[in-house]
Amino acid sequence: MQTTFMKILAQPNQHLKNDGEDVIQGLTKMMFLHGKIGILLCILSYLIATK
Description:
The protein is mostly helical and 51 residues long. The protein has helices at 2-14, 20-50. Helix 1 runs antiparallel to helix 2 (20-50). Keywords: Membrane, Transmembrane, Transmembrane helix. The chain crosses the membrane at residues 31-49.
């Protein structure tokens, strides 16, 4: 679980240059990915709970 999380964290940083705009873009991409993961985890836990 944690290794995939770290890979997701590392992905946006690979494409970053040192420009401020790219850093902000990377951060928003990371936040978006984490948001998607959170939603997926919520759905999964809900499905497991309702079984």
